[in-house]
Structures are given as C-alpha cells and as structure tokens.
Specification:
The complex is a heterodimer. Chain A is an alpha/beta fold. Chain A contains 8 helices and 8 strands. The longest helix of chain A is centred in the middle third of the chain and has 13 residues. Chain B is built from 15 helices and 19 strands. Chain B folds into 2 domains: about 280 residues, Aconitase, domain 3; about 170 residues, 2-Layer Sandwich (Aconitase, domain 3), CATH 3.30.499.10. Chain B is α/β, with parallel strands linked by helices. The chains are: A alpha/beta, B alpha/beta. Chains A and B meet through helix 4, helix 7 and helix 8 of A and strand 2, helix 2, helix 3, helix 5 and strand 8 of B.
Chain lengths: ~200, ~450
C-alpha cells in the first residue's frame, strides 16, 4: 500500500448526499480480474451519456476543478461492499475523500488502499463547499500525522483510528500484521470450547 | 451482554487496542466478482488458503439465468467465472459452480445447505452477507483486501461495532410481510441511520416470522448502513436447520443446540441505541427514490418536506414528483428474485397469488430462484406450471436483474417493481427506475400492469 502523510491540493466538490458505490463504479465494470484501470469508469454514468458523450455539467468533465481531494455530501460510499470503488478513486488520482459521514465498508476499503476518508462536521463540510465555490483554486492541506485539515482560514482536526493512522503513514497492510500473528491464531483455534 | 457481544467475544483472537480486535472467522463465502484480486494477492505472496474447510465458493453475480448449460455468452463474464474455477482448482477450494446442484446466490445457499449456523462469524465479499444473521450469528460484507486476509489467516482486524436493537411488536396486518417491515424501518431510520451499528431485531412480530422472512429482514440491514443484522436463534431456527445437508447431526446436534440456546441478549444487556415499532403501523411499502430509505406506505404521497438538491435529483431520475402517489403507476417490468426475496417461501407466496391469473400484456416478468435447490423444489411443487400459465418466466438461479451486471437488465427509462434490495440509480441497468416492494406487491403489479395496494386484492 502507498504511504499517505501530507497532501496539499485543490479539491473536486460533489455536493450530493448518499453517493453509493454503484455510482462510484457501476456493476457492469466489475468484471475485471485485476485491480487496474478502474479510474476511467469512475462515476461513469454521471460522467458520460449512454452514447459515451461526456455529460458537460458533471464536475469531473470540468477542467476548472482538479486535485487529489474529493469533497462529497454525507453518507459517501453506501451500498455494495465492492472494493472496486476504492480502486477507481485511487486509480483516478484521489488520495483523500472529505465528507460529513462515510459508510462503514467503504471507509475500511478506502483505508486498505491508502485513501483517507476524512470525516468533518456538516458545518465544516458546508464551509469547504463554499470555499471551493468562491475560489476553485483553494488549496486544502491534509496532515495525517497531525490529524489536521486546513483550507483557507479554516483549520480543523479530524479523528482517525490510531492503528489505521500508523498503517496509512507507513503504508502497512492488515495482512502483514495478521500473517505475523499466525501462532496466536493457531493457539486460539486450539483453545475454542465450542466450534463447528 | 448483548447477543452481538457474546458472539464477538467468543471470536477474539487478540486485542489490538481498546476499539480493535483480531477476530476469527468461522465461514468464508466467496464468489466470482470480489475474489480474483484476492487470489492474485495470495499468489504474489506465495501463500495458500489457511483453512480450506472454512471457505466455500459459488458463481452467482455474473451468470446468465437462462441456458446455463451453455457457455456464458458475454466474454468478460465468462472470463470471470472461468477465473473462479481456475482459482478454486489451484487453491483447492470447494466450488459450487454453474450447473452444480448446490449452486445459487451465495446468501441463499449457505442457509439452505445448513452451512450457516447460529453463533458463527461469517464473511463474504458482498454487503448482503448480513442475510445470514437471521440465524443468530455475526455476518457481514467485506472488501477484497479483507477477502485476501481471511483466505490467508482466517482472521480480520475489526473495529467493534456499536449495538442497536430494533423491536417490532404486535401482529402484522393483511398483505404485510417481512420486506415491508424492513423497508418501513429503513424509511424511518434513513439509509445512513444504522451506520456504525450491528442491529439485533427483536419483538413479537419478528419472533413470529419464518426463517425465510427473517433472512429478508437481516438482508437489508446494510441498506440503513448497518454492518449487519441478527435475530436470536429459537425453535424456529433449530427446526429450519435440522436435517440440512451440512448441519450437525446426532450427538453434535444436541451439543450444538445446547450452545445455541445460550445465544440471546441478556435482560440487563445495554444497547447503544434502541427503537420500537408497532407492527400495526406498517403497511405494504414502496420506494419512490434512489436509496432504500426513500420508502413509504402504498397509500402515502411522496413527502414534500425537506426537499434537498439530492432528493430532487433522485425524483428527477425516477420521473416522479413531490406529492405524487405510486398507486396506479403504470410499470413495464417486474423482478422477483435476489438474495432478499428468492427463497422457496417467496416463490410459493407469488404462485399462490398468481394461480389462475394472467400477467398484464405489457409487463415483462422475471422470476429468478435463489438457488438450484429452490428451482428444483419449485418445479417439484408445480410452481413452474403456475408461473407459465400466468405468463411469468421461471428462470435459472443467480443474482439476475438485481445489479445490472449479467444479461438481465431493465431498459433505460422503464419502471421495474423489484423484490431486490437496492433502488440506486442504474442499479438494474443504465437509466432503469427501480421501485422496491415485497413479493406479493410485485406479483400484483405484474398482474395489473401497475402498482396497486395488495390489500385491496386479497380475500
């Protein structure tokens, strides 16, 4: 997993609530057997008409808005557990998603792919949307070690699980840790009182 | 302690910190869509499956639901299913592939084969894994990185969820079933209301339900954001499991039941949140928007309060407007199937209603059994003949039109009354407009060619 510590970037705002993983990457693109190339189909049906023409007013088709940070309405990533949603965001170039609320499975999938799901209050989220709306060049600074988000005059701290913070900063995967405790796992198996 | 805490604690291998544990997984179900990259991960690390007796594979998302004896037509779907076969062969994983007598939707086959049992931890790379919680276990969907972790170590590093109890008390009204209960709950709590929680469903209305109905409820826990849902096991649970293919038998059965009887939330258990609803307040439900929280009773009108930009976008997609009622709305498709409502009880209920009736000429009806076993049973009971006479087509098992991934898709702009679990934009195909209901409402819509209040059509 790629390390993530500090990002300074402009942001792409999508102020829609309840963006589900079917919108992030529609099911018909889940037929791939590798993790690569999902970025071109990120938000596919919001980005392109059915005849493949770009949807002019969708933000990813507007060159004014670019950057490694996506800012989205509350309950981002609800629905399907498909990790392809995180792969699509990462492949497109996003490293941070800011929202006022994340769905559980998406949050875990993002963290397992070096993407930070950065949760702020609804008030702060609204302020960030306003800042970007008034100046699309607004730089956002995310510092994982210090757990701070800075945008213009706005500076807030955010929560992150201490274990996941270490993983993100160092690029560690859960699987490395789990493989290192195989003895504990086998001891647990032997100790079970009731098992089927 | 709550039921959730009892099962969780029994599976903690090691604590990482105050919120995180290494949790042992008893059963891992896999399918073709979310597993190939996990197998690749094992290959690149040069490791195998840690516990082969705890993993089981089937093909369901990407399979056609007609002519399953022929090669899959769509090249990418075929490749993915073939990849599953190759991977299972290489890693020595039991596979119920296309054509196998036990093949079917992963959340239908686990319970019907007696693989899903109380007290277990069960995961699958699919958010509707919550279905299995109906048996009183901790079951939840995971991402592909986690699929790889479970393959490699039989464990996951997990943040302990908060607990919520939802009680439904009293007797359900005429024409109201499990799907209506869960759509009602989600409409009250919203599509995000359960996020961060594991939900236990309780109360007399829940206790009175069959296992199939309980699975419908737990299945949709994820649609309010909850990681999973569960119902304490009882005699109904034991009765359902007994005698199934892989269920424990003999002395093991007795020991298992003794243990399962300890699986309930104690009287003094404390939940982080609790809600209670009166079964009498629940009526046949329909959704009108593009998330499952946007639901209402069939006689209600699309609410005009709190119309945000997101709500208006949603209604625009659906071709509906504030204040409208869905009763009388002309529809073009009906889909009866999915891991929510494709079990034998659902098919029986539909057959019982449509017997001697004819579908409306302009409606296309997909009726898709959840598994080969359900298909075989339906045919044995002659349900296929009833469906045929009504103009319905009983297809072969798979996820079908639930997710717009295989050949079964709803045409753009058309309405589909669907017994599945998600009404997201494009879920059933690009531009498709999904209206979620229970199986009886879907059957009545197929016959009348429009959405109707089932209560007016029952004796």
């Amino acid at each position: 997993m790629e390390k993530l510590n500090k990002i300074v970037s402009t942001a792409v705002p999508i102020p829609i609530e309840d963006i589900d993983t079917d919108q992030i990457i529609p099911a018909r693109f889940l037929k791939a057997v590798s993790k690569d190339g999902f970025g071109k189909n990120l938000f596919r049906d919001w980005r392109y008409h059915q005849d493949e023409r770009p949807v002019k007013d969708f933000i990813l088709n507007n060159d004014t808005y670019q950057g490694q940070i996506l800012v989205a309405g509350k309950n981002f990533g609800c629905g399907s557990s498909r990790e392809h949603a995180a792969w699509a965001l990462a492949d497109y170039g996003f490293k941070v998603v800011i929202s006022s609320f994340f769905a559980d499975i998406f949050r875990g999938n993002a963290l397992n792919n070096g993407i930070l799901p950065l949760q702020v209050s609804q008030d702060v989220l609204d302020q960030i949307f306003s800042l970007i709306e008034s100046d699309h060049q607004t730089l956002l600074e995310v510092n994982v070690a210090e757990q701070t988000l800075t945008a213009g005059n706005l500076k807030v701290s955010f929560e992150i699980d201490p274990y996941k913070k270490v993983c993100l900063i160092n690029g560690y995967d859960d699987i490395d840790f789990l493989l290192s405790i195989k003895d504990d796992i086998e001891t647990y198996e032997k100790s079970r009182v009731f098992t089927l | 302690m709550t039921l959730f805490e009892k099962i969780w604690n029994a599976h903690v291998v090691k604590s990482i910190d105050k919120n995180r544990d290494v949790v042992y997984i008893d059963k891992h179900l896999i399918h073709e869509v979310t597993s190939p990259q996990a197998f690749d991960g094992l290959r690149s690390r040069g490791i195998g499956i840690f516990r082969k007796d705890r993993i089981l594979a089937t093909a369901d998302h990407n399979v056609p639901t007609i002519n399953q004896h022929l090669p899959i037509q769509e090249p990418l779907s075929r490749l993915q299913v073939e990849k599953l076969h190759e991977n299972c062969k290489q890693f020595d994983v039991e596979l119920y592939g296309l054509g196998h007598q036990y093949q079917g939707i992963v959340h239908v086959i686990g319970p019907e084969l007696g693989i899903t049992l109380p007290g277990m931890t069960i995961v699958c790379g699919d958010s509707h894994t919550s279905t299995h919680g109906a048996f009183g276990n901790i079951a939840f969907g995971i991402g592909t990185s986690q699929v790889e972790q479970v393959m490699a170590t039989q464990c996951l590093i997990l943040e302990k969820s908060k607990t919520m109890r939802i009680n439904v008390e009293g007797t359900l009204g005429k024409g109201v079933g499990a799907k209506d209960i869960i759509l009602f709950i989600i409409s009250r709590l919203s599509a995000a209301g359960g996020t961060g929680y594991f939900v236990e469903y309780a109360g007399s209305a829940i206790r009175s339900l069959s296992m199939e109905a309980r699975m419908t409820i737990c299945n949709m826990s994820i649609e309010m954001g909850a990681r999973g849902g569960m119902i304490a096991p009882d005699e109904t649970t034991f009765e359902y499991i007994k005698g199934r293919k892989f269920a424990p038998s003999g002395e093991k059965w007795e020991a298992a039941v003794d243990y399962w009887k300890t699986l309930y939330s104690d009287n003094d258990a404390v939940f982080d949140a609790e809600f209670t609803y009166d079964a009498q307040d629940i009526t046949p439900m329909v959704t009108y928007g593009t998330n499952p929280g946007m639901g209402m009773g069939i006689s209600e009108h699309i609410p005009s309060e709190n119309t945000t930009e997101s709500t208006l976008k949603s209604l625009n997609y659906m071709g509906l407007h504030v204040g409208e009622t869905l009763a009388g709305k002309r529809i073009q498709n009906v889909f009866i199937g999915s891991c929510t409502n494709s079990r034998i009880e659902d098919l029986r209920q539909v057959a019982d209603y449509v017997k001697g009736k004819q579908k409306a000429p302009h409606v296309k009806v997909y009726i898709v059994p959840g598994s080969k076993q359900v298909e075989i049973q339906a045919k044995k009971e002659g349900l296929d003949k009833i469906f045929e006479a009504a103009g319905f087509e009983l297809r072969e098992p798979g996820c079908s039109a639930c997710l717009g991934m295989n050949e079964d898709k709803i045409p753009s702009g058309e309405y589909c009354v669907s017994t599945s679990n998600r009404n997201f934009e494009g879920r059933q195909g690009q531009g498709a407009r999904t209206i979620l209901t229970g199986p009886l409402m879907a059957a009545a819509a197929a016959i009348e060619g429009k959405i109707v209040d089932i209560r007016e059509y029952l004796n």
